[in-house]
């Protein structure tokens, strides 16, 4: 099983720099995909395994029963809905903690495929939430920075208590 970095590990605040898809990035993509499958994550960013690579893995199925993963290299949100919704979010790097986060209800992403060809895709609902969460993480933005200081402090206190037990 993969060892995930735990908040506040420095990798979680490091922004990955976009670059052409290469062998190292493809290898990191396979490693991240294996890690996601291993824990049935909805999504992961390379930072979760301590890598500063510009890639994410997301489940595009949108449901909770089964995962349909896609590896996105150099992803970026190119268009987002003005309409937002609030939903629970968590992280393998902060196990056991979920907080409500506001996100766009759909996003259009630009990303490179494994061959380095630029692609676009639109994600809605839960898949859009996962994509935004993981792209934020790839850019060094941990999900707790998207909530109020009170909610962040409460979540971190709760996490501290679970780590002591």
From TrEMBL:
SUPFAM superfamilies: Peptide deformylase. The active site is at residue 134. Pfam families: Pep_deformylase. Gene3D superfamilies: Peptide deformylase (3.90.45.10). It comes from the Bacteria. Belongs to the polypeptide deformylase family. This is Peptide deformylase-like. It comes from Devosia oryziradicis.
């Amino acid at each position: 099983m993969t060892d995930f970095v735990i908040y506040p590990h420095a990798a979680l605040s490091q922004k990955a720099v976009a670059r052409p898809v290469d062998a190292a990035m493809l290898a990191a993509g396979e490693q991240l995909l294996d890690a996601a499958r291993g824990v049935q994550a909805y999504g992961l960013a390379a930072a979760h395994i301590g890598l500063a690579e510009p890639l994410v893995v997301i489940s595009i199925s949108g449901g909770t029963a089964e995962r349909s993963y896609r590896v996105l290299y150099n992803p970026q949100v190119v268009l987002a809905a003005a309409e937002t919704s609030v939903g629970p979010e968590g992280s393998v790097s902060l196990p056991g903690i979920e907080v409500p986060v506001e996100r766009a209800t759909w996003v259009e992403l630009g990303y490179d495929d494994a061959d380095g060809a630029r692609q676009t895709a639109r994600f809605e609902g839960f898949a859009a939430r996962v994509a935004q969460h993981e792209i934020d993480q790839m850019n060094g933005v941990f999900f707790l920075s998207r909530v109020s200081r009170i909610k962040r402090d409460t979540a971190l206190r709760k996490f501290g208590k679970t780590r002591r037990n």
